[in-house]
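[audit] Reproducing an earlier prediction to check determinism. Same input, same settings, fresh worker. If the tokens differ from the archived copy the diff job will pick it up downstream; this log only records the rerun itself.
[audit] input (156 residues):
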Amino acid sequence: MKKFKIKTRPEKSEDCIGNGKAGIFVSNEMKKLIKEAYEIFFYDLNGKLSVCTPCCVSSENVKKLLEIPVNRLSRELIWEYLDAVHYDETGFEIKHFLPKILEFTAQNENIRMDVSLNLDKCYFEKKNVWSKNELDFMYRFSKQLISDFLDINPDT
């Protein structure tokens, strides 16, 4: 019986911003929200990540995740991080990467096996981790994301 390798990683890309098919459909309102996300979710990781290493994320990629500015992280690095992150009781770690996760989500980039998993590591039900301002932002982002996706013309 022939074995098949299941593809679980995204294709390598030269450009880390806006490679998704829907990236061209990101509304001006969404662009403003993404900019706001980078202002709201600005957390210092103190040089540490709570991720599964070395099997899920290499030491080299952990170093990149810590050193590269969040807005310049590739989707491959975000993919690896989301696959390897452990639960963080403070939420600072996921919040640190959240602006880029939201940016890729708005651009319809593949950063997880399924878009429904993009935010599963956020644990929004943990009210002691999220401020009212952060939850309000996520509500506005979600509302705009749905609106933008509904406005996409499938014929274009």
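[audit] rerun output stored. Observation attached for the diff report: The mean pLDDT is 84.
[audit] end
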